[in-house]
Amino acid sequence: MTKRYHCGEELSSEDFGLSFNEMRKWSLEEFARMGAKAILETALAEEVKEFIGRERYERSGSANGYRNGKRKRNLQLGCGLIEIGAPKVTGAPLPFRSEVLPAWKRRGRELEEAIPQLYAEGLSTRDFRRALAGLWGDIGLSRSSISRANKALYEDFRLWRKRDLSGEDILYLFCDGVYLKMRTGNSSAEAVLVAHGIDRSGKRVLLGIALGGRESEESWKSLLLNLQERGLKEPGLAITDGNAGLIKALKCVWKDVPRQRCIAHKMRNVLDRVPRKRQAEVKRDVVKIFYAADLSGALEAVKRFEAKYGKEFPSACGTLAKDLSDCLTFYYFPQEHWKRLRTSNVIERAFREVRRRTNVVGRFPNENSALVLIWASIEGDRLKWRGIRMSEELVAKIIKVREEVREKRMDLSMLDIYLEAA
Question: Hey, where are the domains in the chain?
Fold first, then answer.
């Protein structure tokens, strides 16, 4: 059986008014621009033909208007700036409005979508112009055009802040604040409060972002109550730093939720009470407390620390004693999760990326612009996070521990005598 091939109409270089010798010097981007120009102008011509009901140069008494030349239109596309001849129509009962190329359209959808993404990455308007000069061409990119393109980002953030949280099953809740200089004319940094969690599938969920002044109890309480009002159920464990306002707010909103205090903050506080020449030695012994094989091993390490440093560094022992039980709560939970629960490093790493991006801005014109950029930055970091291993057995253990840990008490009385020295 003989195969038959369909021979479609082929374009030649003459169709573009060029010789092949001229075209062979083009870059791939120039070929892409010329191809986009040819296809777009063809589509516009077909659209006009359908609108007026006749071919070019065809004489018909039933024509719905007349072609009346072309006008130049510049478009910014992914392949760069192209110039096309958009057909004009006169004499029609209704004005010709192109669906292929609306009158207000000046750049492709991909470029419009790229602007919010670049903004979220921390690029300034100046960076946009410098990095994308080849794509914007003579039209350029103004502050107002960036603002218009970012409206979708602002709307996404508005809807995100109001979304229902009743479907979220958060096992581990992380709360922390990042300080940024946000307002023009205000020299002091302000805290942005962030709450995110790990759900029963092991994925990170960003829950809330709010401006919090100096991380006061009322600021944190307002954020936590907002999460609760939107349907967030009581988490299994709250991981925090040592901020007093946050601790009081958690006890007020979810008084029965166990709390894990970040051990990295605790270790730094202890070492601050020790001479620099002895810090390496003391650190090794503190590490033995927080990286023991189990809770009993950790409590034995506490006793050894007290016996070794009690007389020499009573203030360091007092600092260690303060809220130490909260630093050891993670030992009750599945060992597979200890690495994630000991510290608030998950959100701390995201904050480093936030600072990198916000440093480009310097000071924000208003509160909302700051929160949107922070939200986009942390949300981007969240999507890159690989998660933690979860199973039905682990989830059941976490739920059981959440109930039992309230009744358990650690014997840390050997450190009580040092609390006044802290």
Answer: 13-106, 110-149, 263-343+391-422
Q: How many CA atoms lie within 13 A of 212 on its CB side?
A: 28
* Tokens, residue 59: 């004489």
Phi, psi of 240 (to 5 degrees): -140, 175
> How far apart, in Å, are the Cα atoms of 237 and each of 114, 162, 240, 324?
38, 24, 10, 16
State residue 247's pLDDT score. 92
Whole-angstrom distance, CA of residue 331 vs CA of residue 342? 9
- The pLDDT mean for the chain works out to 78
Phi, psi of 333, rounded to the nearest 5 degrees: -95, 170
At residue 10, does pLDDT exceed 70? no
Question: Tokens 């030992």 label which residue?
Answer: 331
**CB 399, CB 236: distance < 8 Å:** yes
| β-bridge pairing 237-240 and 259-261 | parallel
Beta bridge pairs of residue 205: 197
| Band (211; pLDDT cuts 50, 70, 90) | confident
Instruction: Tell me what pLDDT residue 231 has.
Output: 95
Dihedral angle sign, alpha carbons of residues 198, 199, 205, 208: negative
187 or 278: which leads in pLDDT: 278
d(CA 48, CA 151): 33
Residue 5 is predicted with a pLDDT of 47
Q: What is the pTM of this model?
A: 0.69
Asked if residue 371 lies in contact with residue 206, where contact means CB atoms within 8 angstroms, the answer is no
Question: CA 415 to CA 324: how far, in whole Å?
Answer: 10
Identify which has the larger pLDDT, 366 or 8: 366
* Token pair in block for residue 236: 């299994």
Q: Which residue has the tokens 């939200």?
A: 375
Which of the two residues, 178 and 263, has the higher pLDDT score?
Answer: 263
Distances (CA, A) of 231 to 41, 168, 170, 204, 296: 53, 8, 11, 18, 38
